[in-house]
Design a protein that fits this description.
about 35% helix, about 90 residues, 4 strands, 4-stranded mixed sheet, alpha+beta, Glutaredoxin
């Protein structure tokens, strides 16, 4: 996986908040991996189930995608929208 965990967050333009067992997170990760590879950008992923504060804030919206530190999408990731945000 490309930059998973908090170690890769600083260098990554895209951050995916997810949790284990989430099929929408799996779908989002696939789209993010595809688009980031296409445009040459890094992404990071953070498991919110290990952070009570993130779980309280985003638990009902996951997966949540951030681009350049701003919330970009939740529940589903649009290839076109993500590609445009990274252009």
């Amino acid at each position: 996986m490309n930059g998973e965990g908090s170690g890769g967050d600083a260098a990554a333009r895209v951050l995916l908040l997810s949790k284990p067992g989430c099929h929408l997170c799996d779908d989002a990760r696939h789209v993010i991996e595809e688009i980031c590879a296409e445009v040459g950008e890094a992404y990071a992923e953070r498991d919110i189930s290990t952070d009570p504060e993130l779980m309280a804030q985003y638990g009902e919206q996951i997966p949540v995608t951030f681009v350049d530190g701003r919330q970009h999408d939740y529940w589903r990731v649009s290839r076109e929208r993500l590609r445009a945000a990274l252009a």
